[in-house]
Records
---
Amino acid sequence: MTGLVALALASDPRPDDNNVVAGWVGAVVFVALILAVAFILRSFTKQIRKVNAAKQAGVFGEDSEAPERESDETSSHQA
């Protein structure tokens, strides 16, 4: 029993601070995350450009509906 305790105390399971590294798997995961974020930002930018182009083309009809809403509100208040 004393031999097991001495063996457990003799073998330090903690690695040296200079030997702890993430390794290749950590590097690959880090690069993959960077690429994923770059892809998502690129896709988001494309979608925003499409929405802005559609808005300028009048697809959403915001400019034409805004006066109607105001006139509907004024007519409902007058009645």
---
Amino acid sequence: MPDLLLTPLRRIVTEKGNVLHALKSSEVSYTGFGEAYFSCIHEGVIKGWKRHLRMTLNLICPLGLVRFVVYKHQSIVIDTFLGPEKSETYQRLTVPPGYFVGFKGIAAGTSIILNLASIEHDPSEAETKPLEAFSWPS
């Protein structure tokens, strides 16, 4: 199982519309497929904190800009931005089980996040804490 990873992704820019890569089964961050789903987040809104006990997350932002903060044992492990507009933010965040994840919509309007999850959704395998449980960095 991979540790926490931030993987740059390929963007193919074309005049008719860009192609944005997500995940290949040959990559080390691929741990199987359970389901894929999109989460939407509005500008200025923070969603968090959730820790999965068995699921590996593969998070990609194909529309907008989202800030992700990941905690383990009360310490920030990653604080990064994901979004398709720049090569430095078009990347995949792989989060193995055991980390608390929160995210905030940065772009105007609504941003979209794709999670290519290793297992199907199971509410009994995740733990949620209120926003006040961890500090959101300024």
---
Amino acid sequence: MRLNILVVDDSGVMRKMVLRALTESGLDLGTVFEAANGREGLAVIEREKLDVVLLDIHMPVMTGEELFRLLRSSPKTKTLPVVFISSESSSARIETLMEMGAGFIHKPWTAEDFRAQILAVTGAVRE
């Protein structure tokens, strides 16, 4: 199953690092889209067929958490798999997001972290 993925992070360098980790993960990648904040990410979500969204928490314009809560409140996107990628240190905040159905990858990461979390949230079978 080829995975169409959206990477939402305000740092272009971080998005490139995520793309590299995805490439090295061994996942069957389809199209990987990029957005610099939650509002841009929402526009991509509205026009593309995605299998998973990778979100930074702290971004300008619309944070990853705001976008995630918006996605969960809409019938069209409430089951869209989301994985947060962050250096967030608040265990309560991380726990709340995970209870809402998100996966979480803590910075720094490995390609295997991406593989494991994406497989977990999408329910994809290991190749």
